[in-house]
Amino acid sequence: MGCYCSGFLEGFDIYIDAVPESVYGDCFGQSIEFYGGREFAVVQIIYPTTGGVWPWTEGAPESLRQWQSLLAHNC
Question: Which InterPro entries does this UniProt record tie to the protein (predicted)?
C-alpha cells in the first residue's frame, strides 16, 4: 500500500508505492537478467506538478501521465 511522504522534495509531497511483479517484464528486462529472475522489489516515486496536480487527478495533463507512467498498484 502506497503512502504520501513529505520532506523529499522541498515544498511538495511525493507518493511511493510498490510496483507489481506483473509489469516487470515490460519495464525491467535488464534487471530481470541481472538478478537472474524476478526476485527483487521495485518501488515507484511519483510527484505532482508544481501546481499540485497528480497524474491520477481528473484533468491532469496527458503529458504528465505519459511522462510518469503509473506502474504501482494503487495509483
Answer: DUF4262
